[in-house]
Amino acid sequence: MSTPAISQRAATATHRTIVRTHAGMAELVAYIVAGLATGAIYALAAIGFTLVWQTSQTINFAQGEYVMLPAILILAGVSFFGLPLWAAALLGGLVFVAVFGAGFKIAVVDPMIRHGVLPLAIATMALAIIMKEGAKDFFSSEAQTFPSPFPAGAVDILGVSLSMQHIAIIAVAFIAIGILQWFVSRTRTGRQMQATAQNPGVALILGIPVARMVMLTFAINAALAVLASVLVSPLYLAKFSNGEVIGLFAFIAAIVGGFNQVRGALGGGLIVGVVDSLAAAYISSSYRLAVPLALLVLIILIKPEGLFGRREERRI
Amino acid sequence: MTETILELDDVVGGYGRITILNGCSFKVRRGAITTVIGPNGAGKSTVFKAIFGLIRPSSGRIRFDGTDITGWSPRQLLEAGIVYVPQGRNLFPELSVRHNLELGTVAAGPGIRDVGARIERALDRFPILRQKADQQASTLSGGQQKQLEIMRGLLLDPRLILIDEPSIGLSPLLVQETFAILTELRDQGVTILMVEQNARSALQISDEGIVLELGRARMQGPADEILRDPRVGQLFLGGGLAEPAA
């Protein structure tokens, strides 16, 4: 499970951004911003994770691979079909949402959920392995550079030098989450989706198209994964094994946040990102994976419903 | 227009391999309150689930206004004019009172264009609903939540309401209030089919009664006759319903 290459690369990226800052506070701020940037990406994955859990009791253990694969598909579009990057991104994103949003629901979730939550969870683990090995065998086992959609360089804010890329990632992720929140709470369709998540039985007797709403959450999850992939791959490079760490962190973020709401997953993602960044900088980059895990254990012991969660009642 | 709005004809059904309804047949009179009573496990709630398309009968027919509705989806039944208010809490606690009502209009057909106005009228029906319109439904008391649920069920002007145990968990005063709403609806021409554990008070406001035992309708008749029938008392005291002499 260890991926020292990724950890070091990310740590180097972080170091690069703070190389010109002075010691102390400025350094701390830069580390926090770097942590918020990766945390916002974890949050995107964690939000998708909680959405599909809420509407269909699917624990998607392939969530990390969901964030890994779109970047690979985009690079494959460029190198195999000679597409320009923007076209490859568009096509890769659409193909991914169709196959790993709708297709996943039809081919994996629907047949497996009849046998229970656990068989389905195990099926998603198998899917994770297929996605990972598929990316390795059909594309590359090497880490590939992925172009950043944002300008490089640093901006100086109150004497602290911050990476433009980090700030742009935070902004894009927050805008996406804001749009999602607006959709879920301010539109009729979004409220039907919430109703389906809160109580599918009642949603059904009111004539809400429950199956369509569940399908919609799977499509949203896949779309969030595409966005997370495009944001994270310039930092971590695109590699078949990226999903391991990202999936673990998204999972921790979802649990820390309470597992049952968008707000919680967002908070959880940011906390995990910052804790990870600070642990890499101030403790040791070789122990960085252990720190979010320790946070997870701590939360489960002290506040099992998560920092922002509510206790869940489920009718059987 | 015939007297009968809903008819069950020899309905057999249950959950998976467990059969609950064993050839259940009865008729529901248009514009009346009909209460289904019976001991626990007689299949009272299952009858509603079969009518509302939540379980598919393995045999038998269900007709609504002369149309065979066996196996229709809840959405189709809502559009046909049937609503179902199940027992227990059936709101979305984290959504506002107003949005809970809005979700009751999802199945509105093209004929209903004034959804917004209907929601406002429903809010005005009870001062507390208007007052808490934009607060979470979970801030309402149990009785208020039931009232909201009934109001939500009425938004699409149903012709038949299936209401399961409306009195459960309510104080005697609120039970009276809820029953008053039902009689008022009946007077406006809505047909009500109700399941009640609280058999005596339910039959007192009902026009018709149906006694269900072991998944079959064993008696059907005017509510006051059912109420006076000594065999009904016996049934509720645990003894089986005596077979009528051949």
| Count of β-strands of chain A | 2
Q: Trace the largest sheet of chain B across and list its strands.
A: 6-7-8-3-9-10
Structural class based on helices, strands and sheet pairing of chain A: mainly alpha
| Basic shape of chain A | globular
Distance between the termini of chain B: 36 Å
Strand content of chain A: under 5%
How many strands appear in the DSSP assignment of chain B?
10
Structure commentary:
The complex is a heterodimer of chains A (316) and B (246). Helices cover 74% and strands 3% of the residues of chain A. Chain A has helices spanning 4-18, 25-56, 63-81, 85-113, 117-138, 164-186, 188-198, 200-205, 210-236, 242-257, 262-283, 290-302; strands at residues 154-157, 160-163. The model of chain B has no long low-confidence stretch (mean pLDDT 90). At the A-B interface, α7 and α8 of A face α2 and α3 of B.
Q: Can you tag this structure with a few keywords?
A:
A: 316 residues; mainly alpha; two-stranded antiparallel sheet; globular; B: 246 residues; four-stranded antiparallel sheet; 10 helices; 10 strands; 26% strand
